[in-house]
Amino acid sequence: MAEETAAKRLKISTPLIGTHNGHFHADEALAVHLLRLLPDYTPSHLVRSRDPAVLSTCHTVVDVGGEYNPSSNRYDHHQRTFKTTFPDCETKLSSAGLVYLHFGKQIIANQAGLPVDSPSVALLWTKLYNSFVEALDAHDNGIDVYDPSALAASGLEKKFSDHGVTLGSLVSDLNPNWNDPVPEDATAAQAAEDDKFLKASKLMGDAFERKLSYFASAWLPARDIVNKAYAERKTHDPRGRVLVFPTPLPWKDHLASVEDENPTEEKVLYTLYPEKTGPGAKWRIQAVAVSQDSFESRKALPEAWRGVRDDKLDAVSGIEGCVFVHASGFTGGNKTWDGVRKMAQKALES
User: Fold this and answer.
1) pLDDT tens digit string along 83-118?
2) How far apart are CA 211 and CA 176, in angstroms?
3) The whole model's pTM is what?
4) According to a count of CB atoms within 10 Å of the terminal CB, is the N or C end of the chain lower?
């Protein structure tokens, strides 16, 4: 009897999350998962309805209700007057962005085992928004990546459809089809729809947690290594155009940041790093792109090397131990450190 009473008390005290029923989207699917990562919402129950009377019983409501009021835990973004954005961004928030705006730092701190006021948490908070959440906000609010009028004026046309597989499309696919059988009982029908929503929420949540784990455990620790390599870059090239890393690591974001902090310094053109840790590893050379979203290199490897391999590349380049150079010239390899260093030197001189 005591256990039954305790269970009932727990159920009553568990926060009730509300969102709308019907067709669901990636933003509220993620918003619900994010809330459930917080200790105060573990465990929590979910109700999906558009009935104001039902929603009024909820502790927290996302993506429905026509109200954005953090003090009463209301996080809708469909109001005509709603204009809230993430700091230093222009994209209007969706329910995912709103929940992330208010609870993201706490979620990151809990998941990464860091103090919530740590600079690392602030850095991860911004990185995860820019790399993951913002695209969901834009999609749900119907915001294009490019200004449609500017795009039309430029005369640019797509080479292929970019409506491929995305997280948003995968969530959309989990919605019931128009001709799926629907239980006659309204409660059973809603339960079946809710089950599909929970699968969508798990899909979005798993993707978010994988990104967070990667950024906290791999991306963030690489920052100090890139900064150290940048500080030592002129030992490899007097003008500082080559960075050398002791191991393969995610360097592009961090290089962009450190270059932004040093705008008067000459840009880095190549990075060098072993393909793996341990003795005998082959080395790679990679050209730095003109921007993080571009395939164009600041200075691609020499045209005569591109698409050539092994002994033929040795002969063309005049460097022993060459393995390959990609046909586009953005990367190449050599069997030794000395060989890849010479590849960088000749590429700089070309």
Assistant:
1) 999 999 999 999 999 999 999 999 999 999 999 999
2) 28
3) 0.86
4) N
Gap between the Cα atoms of 296 and 287, Å rounded: 9
Between CA 157 and CA 159 the distance in angstroms is: 6
In this structure, the dihedral spanned by the alpha carbons of residues 320, 321, 323 and 329, taken in order and rounded to 10 degrees, is -40
Beta bridge partners of 75: 62, 68
Instruction: Assess contact for 215 and 246: CB atoms under 8 A.
Output: no
Taking alpha carbons only, the member of 217, 230, 344, 229 closest to residue 287 is 344
Tell me whether strands 270-274 and 242-244 are parallel, antiparallel or unpaired. Answer: parallel
Closest-CA residue to 76 (of 90, 97, 58, 105): 97
CA angle at residue 60 from 54 to 65, to 5 degrees?
55
Query: Looking at the DSSP assignment, which residues form a beta bridge with residue 273?
Result: 284
Torsion of Cα atoms, 239 then 245 then 250 then 254, to 10°: -40
Residue of 108, 106, 146 lying closest to 127 (CA atoms) = 108
Q: Where are the alpha helices (DSSP H) in the chain?
A: 2-13, 26-36, 52-55, 95-112, 119-128, 134-140, 148-154, 167-173, 186-214, 220-231, 252-260, 310-317, 337-349
Q: Which residue has the tokens 């046909």?
A: 327
Distance between CA atoms of residues 87 and 80, nearest Å: 21
